[in-house]
Amino acid sequence: MDIDVDTFLTVVYCVCDEVYQREIGPKLRPRPGARPKLSDSEVLALVVLEQWHGHRCERCFLAYARRHWLGYFPCLTSQSAFNRRVRHLWAALCLLGPAIAREVSQYLGRAPTYPVWDGLPVPLMRRCRGRRHRLFGDEADVGHGGSDKEPYYGMHLLAVANDQGTIDGCVVGPAATSEYWLAEAVLRWRQEPTAPGPTPEQLAPILGPTHLKGGLRVGPTGPLGPRLAAGTPRTLPIQADLGFTGRHWRRHWRTAYGTPVLTKADDDGLADPAERRRARLGCKSRRQAVETVFSTLDDRLAIKFPRARSKWGVWLRLIAKVAAYNLAVYVNYLFHRPTFSLFNPFD
């Protein structure tokens, strides 16, 4: 079923307002002062819509919205006032993506069958500029990512996708940080959002010595977060790639969080070749879900090179893109469109 821009804008605002009023608003601290003309739901809807703008420029987006969408957002503010409102609602934006994923499950009348997690490199600038100018502190550094393991300067996003096509949690860290620590942060903050971030000293008695020289584990190379975007706890087994075969980590996740982590290597112990082949094909099929999600985030929402100039700026843009992606998938379900045929209001 085809939809137009008017319908899309209306649905985006209605979903943001419904989720905010029911799940997010009661968790936020009341803001002192007069009631703003632009409601919190309108700010969240505008932040989500901004992620589709091709120029990735907030000033250009607000100018476009003022020129074409003023009938939908009649109290549109200046760019500086809009920035202040977005910074005030950073916690709501963190909660918005996972909340929309739960809305999709509720609409479909079933919970996700399986979650899949994987990492996505997020370059912030070309490697030569990152090494020389150091615009960011320890929240960004040089790491290796992608299928070719090419070095890049930026951050690393670990996202948890599911068979419904949505992302129900994510965490961001420096590019050189191992995905094990990002996965530990996701599971820990799903259980207790106020818990401190993982460190090697905390987990050394549980994980034991590493195979590296000296036997000491290298922990996160910078801050991890945002913790409110990790999502809600689940007990379903998580499908992962061969980068998560560490038996001490998997035993810890099963014991501490009740979350088994499965990889393709677990199927090697099957004696029947035909059964082993079917199990491997099923694993590849489930892994394809997260690959399609990452491809859509890169091609349609330009998640790489987000053009932010601070740690919180990068984090906010990444979680806003996750929320925009989940909302676009939800719109596809509502109008019986293909799951990954995302509508772009600027096309």
N/C terminus separation: 17 Å
Per DSSP E runs of 2 or more residues, the count of β-strands stands at 6
Which percent range fits the helix content?
40-55%
Radius of gyration using CA atoms only: 21 Å
- Strand fraction band? 5-15%
Shape type:
globular
Catalogue the unreliable spans.
Answer: none
- What structural category characterises the helix and strand content? alpha+beta
Mean pLDDT: 88
Reported for the largest beta sheet, the result is:
4 strands, antiparallel
* SSE arrangement, N to C: HHHHHEHEEEHHEHEHH
User: What is the number of helical segments per DSSP (H or I, 4+ residues)?
Assistant: 11
Structure description:
The protein has helices at residues 5-24, 40-50, 58-68, 79-88, 90-108, 127-133, 179-191, 200-207, 247-257, 273-299, 311-334; strands spanning 115-125, 141-145, 150-162, 167-174, 238-239, 261-262. The protein is 46% helix and 12% strand. The model has no long low-confidence stretch (mean pLDDT 88). The protein is of the alpha+beta class and 347 residues long. It has eleven helices and six strands. Helix 1 (5-24) packs across helix 5. Strand 3 (150-162) and strand 4 (167-174) form a beta hairpin. Strands 1, 2, 3 and 4 form a four-stranded antiparallel β-sheet that branches. It has a two-stranded parallel ribbon with strand order 5-6.
